[in-house]
Amino acid sequence: MPDLAYLNGEIMPIEKATVPIEDRGYQFGDGIYEFVASYAGRLFMLEEHLDRLERSTGELAFDAIAREDIKKAIMDLFEQSGYPRAGIYIQISRGVAPRNHAFSPGMSPQVVMTVRAVKEVPESLRENGASAITVKDLRWGRCDIKSVQLVPNCLAKQKALDAGCDDAIFVSDRNVVREGTSSNLFIVSDGRLITHPLTHNILPGITRLAMLRICQSAGLEVQESFFGIKELYGADEVFLTGTITEVLPIVRIDEKPIGDATVGPLTRRLYALLREKALADRPS
Fold it and tell me: What residues have CB less than 8 Å from 267, skipping those under 6 apart?
């Protein structure tokens, strides 16, 4: 099956796709993105991803792009790839123009997509749990926009890997635990699920949203509130959520065990419920 790219209306082999050097996404990080995954040949929560994409373009004052045009392009690319378990990356920049910090209205946004087979999280991490470090949150003040400005995330992820861990968790200078480098974070404490509320400081994750819906259906209360590093270290269970991450247990943080350093029962249950929902959902 081929890895394909979509570039402004044309589908081509991924190695053939190029963008102009004066694309503002390349020169200024003036772009937004989404990542959608499929299960058994069906895209999961596509409409919710499109909702967030529209919000991101609006927050950055991009010229409007027809939602149905983007959706059709995603579906065309997905169907041509033939991957039953696909990952589709969508990136939209403000457009191409001579380099200038200010931008003019009426620019044509540049739309790029790629599709590849999903690289699954190793089963050993799901069974035995992952490890993480905490890092100071130095990201820009609008983490709720899914922009391509990800250098702090990349540096934090690399720092975690260099330390022999799997991911990093951002903590503010006021000791508020935020999220992972590419995922939201939940803790379980005395049977209560707790996650950071939606503010400008975290991404409104689609899997986070799925998790809240699953918990509501299962009668599990989720508390959206701020918590600190002491609560993180003292949690019974910790897990990350994301499109590829799904529900990933974290059993050790900063070399400290979380609970008994094994994957907790609620984390296992929620992962199973997420997979069940993803495989049951009908095409958008």
Answer: 188, 237, 239, 247, 249
* Catalytic pick among 71, 146, 159, 256: 146
3-state helix/strand/coil string of 160-229: HHHCCCCEEEEECCCCEEEEECCCEEEEEECCEEEECCCCCCCCCCHHHHHHHHHHHHCCCCEEECCCEH
Contacts of 130 (CB under 8 A, 6+ apart): 165, 166, 167, 240, 248, 249, 250, 251
Q: Could you report the per-residue pLDDT of 82-94, keeping only the tens digit for each?
A: 999 999 999 999 9
How does strand 130-136 pair with strand 246-253?
parallel
Which tokens is 233 given? 């270290």
Q: Which CATH class name applies to 4-117?
A: alpha beta
pLDDT over threshold 50, residue 284: no
Residues 140-189 pLDDT 10s: 999 999 999 999 999 999 999 999 999 999 999 999 999 999 999 999 99
For the question of residue 146 being annotated catalytic, the response is yes
Please state the length of the chain.
284
Q: Which candidate, 259, 38, 242, 237, places its Cα nearest to that of 157?
A: 242
Q: Which fold has domain 123-280?
A: D-amino Acid Aminotransferase; Chain A, domain 2 (3.20.10)
